[in-house]
Specification:
The chain has 153 residues and is of the alpha+beta class. The chain has 3 helices and 5 strands. The chain is elongated.
């Protein structure tokens, strides 16, 4: 039996948005179609969004979205590397932004010296950062390493 639905490898590039963002896409789709005289149910809009993201149906898409990354939340313990220095700390604030990015405020357990100079130090105990669903910041150091890398799982 051949499926008429797109396969997952045909889904758009980039990280899968959160379930809430996907629901907002379905609502916008429904409203846009209604503005052009085509009425569809909310359930049909959800299914259409699922197909656009390469999923068989809405339930499959939301399961895919849940396994991509559950997100970050205040109070959550995190570990990783900031400017090449290992750290452990806690998420003080988290907000999902556009295109799968997260705006985070992290508080390190121990302050990190963010300067490589032997002439002076600059310690940071708390930083604001932006990371993608893989936990990496788009900003990079001069040697090409992401400023922030969070360990997932």
């Amino acid at each position: 039996m051949t499926s008429t639905h797109p396969k997952n490898e045909n889904r758009p590039a980039g990280p899968l948005p959160s379930r809430d963002t996907l629901k907002q896409q379905a609502k916008r789709l429904r409203n846009d179609l209604a503005a052009h005289g085509q009425s569809i149910s909310h359930a049909r809009a959800l299914e259409m969004i699922a197909h656009q993201w390469g999923a068989r149906d809405w339930n499959t898409l939301t399961a895919m979205a849940a396994t991509v990354h559950p997100g970050w939340a205040p109070g959550q313990r995190v570990t990783g590397r900031y400017l090449g220095h290992a750290f452990a700390g806690v998420v003080k604030a988290a907000r999902q932004s556009a295109n799968g990015y997260w705006a985070l405020t992290l508080r390190f357990d121990e302050a990190i010296d963010v300067v490589t100079s032997t002439q002076f130090s600059a310690f940071r105990r708390q930083v604001n950062t932006t990371v993608n669903a893989e936990g990496q910041s788009p900003q990079k150091t001069s040697d090409g390493q992401p400023h922030m890398v969070l360990n997932l799982g």
